[in-house]
Specification:
heterodimer, A: 94 residues, alpha+beta, three-stranded antiparallel beta sheet, 3 strands, B: 315 residues, mainly alpha, globular, binds fe (ii) ion
Chain lengths: 94, 315
């Protein structure tokens, strides 16, 4: 069986102060090469100041079939939002 | 949910402009259509480097050379964004490359034409990238999330490709008579193949209807072709070059240019493998892939050895 370079997911911080954001994936033989390839593939126009690489097989994703049941506990809790609380207009800075 | 319900839910999402993401349920036909289209698109980006790569070492100045080099490097990047989008559909890179080498997957026929003169670097950037941009701007709104996101990145990078091409021709037409003739000759050779890039007429296009219903494509081949002609003819006029179509003229009533018939026999000949450079392109791609095999194997062996050494050091 022929073996291929594993797949890596690439996350890039575009500038300090912002989070890393997923930009795509690529193949590389190890983490160091994944970073170098990510630089060439995803930051040719200075789109980043920091790169994270994670082998795709290490990511566990929630299943879209369960989107309903997974997220519905949050759907009926309006009291988690500030607009649920009625205050008179005269009260400022709150 | 039953298959019927799933299909209905899927089409509802599409109709409401909700993007489809990799782990979402999708009809097998949708997955197959995307794999076919995205891989064909990826292969086109990669094979498209060959006619231009041909001129990097012969660019007339350092400025032209760095620009062409950067453009060709971008095209490699575009291929990679697209392969990575295709892989989210559950097919691996190796399989995609194998399909290309076996002739099961296609790439854009335009890259089966030779780049004979330096002016062709101008015409390719202006017309071939220009036509690709029309298609790709539409695809930024395609229904499959990873494909749409790849298109956004690509479109940001494409506009320099077209501008550098047009600038090459602008310089030539302002040069000597010979240089101007070289620019005209290049337009003569690339105009019709560029129009063919949009694919067969709508009534002959087997995939268009389904593709539009799934919002993979959002404009038909003929709509995009007309849009390209309308945008490009005034640019040719500005260059003082003549578009090689005696039937081309502005139609006030339609608000579009009318144009002559396309030679579809030529198009199908090239698609079937009988274009001027089909064999050469495939030969070069296969050679590069095979000659690079030892590098891929060595890098993997090195990575495995290092991982094993790290493990013993920790133990
Ligand atoms: Fe491209
Ligand atoms: Fe391009």
């Amino acid at each position: 069986m022929k073996k291929n370079w594993p797949l890596w997911e690439i996350f890039i911080r575009s500038k300090n102060g912002l989070s890393h954001k997923h930009v795509g994936s690529l193949h590389a033989s190890d983490a160091q090469m994944a970073i170098e390839n990510a630089r060439d593939v995803y930051t040719r126009r200075s789109e980043g100041v920091s790169i994270w690489v994670v082998e795709s097989k290490h990511i566990t994703a929630s299943s879209p079939d369960q989107t309903g049941s997974l997220f519905d506990p949050a759907d009926d809790k309006v009291y988690r939002h500030p607009t649920f609380y009625h205050l008179p207009d005269e009260v400022k800075h709150i | 949910m039953s298959d019927n319900q799933l299909t209905k839910h899927f089409q509802d999402q599409i109709d409401q402009e909700v993007k489809i993401e990799p782990k979402d349920w999708m009809p097998e036909g949708y997955r197959q259509m995307l794999i076919r289209q995205i891989s064909q698109h990826a292969h086109s980006e990669v094979i498209g480097m060959l006619p231009e790569g041909n001129w990097i070492s012969r660019a007339p100045s350092l400025r032209r050379k760095v620009a062409l080099l950067a453009k060709v490097q971008d095209e490699a990047g575009h291929g990679l964004y697209l392969y990575s989008a295709a892989e989210t559909l559950g097919i691996d890179r190796d399989e995609l490359i194998a399909q290309l080498h076996q002739g099961k997957a296609k790439y854009s026929s335009i890259f089966n034409y030779p780049s004979l003169t330096w002016a062709d670097m101008g015409a390719i950037g202006w017309l071939v990238d220009g036509a690709a941009i029309m298609n790709q701007v539409m695809l930024t709104r395609t229904s499959y999330g990873p494909y749409a996101r790849a298109m956004v990145r690509i479109c940001k990078e494409e506009s320099f490709h077209q501008r550098q091409g047009y600038e090459i021709l602008l310089t030539l037409v302002r040069g000597s008579e010979d240089q101007k003739a070289m620019a005209q000759d290049s337009l003569n050779r690339w105009w019709w193949p560029a129009l063919m890039m949009f694919g067969p007429n709508d009534e002959d296009s087997v995939h268009t209807q389904q593709s539009m219903a799934w919002k993979i494509k959002r404009k038909t081949n003929d709509e995009l072709r007309q849009q390209f002609i309308d945008a490009t003819v005034p640019q040719a006029d500005y260059l003082g070059l003549k578009v090689p179509d005696p039937d081309l003229k502005w139609n006030d009533e339609r608000g579009h240019y009318d144009f002559g018939p396309i030679d579809w026999d030529e198009f199908w000949q090239v698609v079937k493998g009988y274009g001027p450079c089909n064999r050469q392109r495939m030969r070069d791609h296969i050679a590069a892939h095979e000659e690079g095999a030892w590098v891929r194997e060595a890098a993997l062996a090195y990575a495995e050895k290092r991982a094993a050494r790290l493990e013993t050091a920790v133990a």
